[in-house]
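Our preliminary data section would be incomplete without showing what the modeling component actually yields. Below, a chain of 177 amino acids is followed by its predicted structure, encoded as C-alpha cells that our downstream tools consume directly.
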Amino acid sequence: MMRAWPVIAAMFLALGGLSAVAGYEMALPRAAAWREIAWPFPRDGWPAGRAFRCGAAECGTEVEAYLRPKLGFCNCDSGVADDDEVDRVADVDMIGPRFVPLGAGDVVDVADMPGRIRVYRLDGSRTAIGIAVSHRCDLMAVAAQGRGDAARVQRVTLRFLASQEVRTWMAAAMEGR
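Predicted structure:
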C-alpha cells in the first residue's frame, strides 16, 4: 500500500501537467494579441470604424475584425430582428461582394448589446463573420474575416469583442452623439 502512494502522486502530477499544457495550447488569444490597423475600406455613408488584426501565431489563424457604430440606424423597438438585417448592415459586403451564408444566424450579446451573428463563406476560401448588435436606436456593425475554420474565426472574434478594452470603446462609441 505504501508503494502505491508515490505512483498515484506521480500520475496525478503528470495528468495535471498535461491538462495545463493542453489548456495553454487551446486557449484563445486575449485582446493584447490584436493590433490596430488602418481602416481598409473606401468611404461610404458612415464614418470609418476601427480595424484590428490578430496573426496566425497568436490566434491560430489570421483574423481581421472591423467595427463601427452606425448611430441612428437601428429599429428602436425591435433592434436587430433577423438574419436578413445582419446581411444588410454588418459590413460583410465591404470585405467581398460575393458572400454566402453558411446557415441561419444566432442570437448574440456583445458588450451588453443584443443582436445577431451569422457566418459566411467569401470567394470560396475565406470565412466571414457578420455581427449586428443594437443599443436603443443605434447599431454596432462588426465584420471579421479569416482563412481558418469558421468556428475558430467566430470564437476568436467573439473573444476579442468580449475584452474589456473593446467593450469600453464600443460603449463610448455608441454614446458618442
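The first helix runs from residue 4 to 26. The helical segments are 4-26, 56-59, 83-89, 92-95, 150-161, 164-174. Preliminary results of this kind motivate Aim 1 of the renewal.
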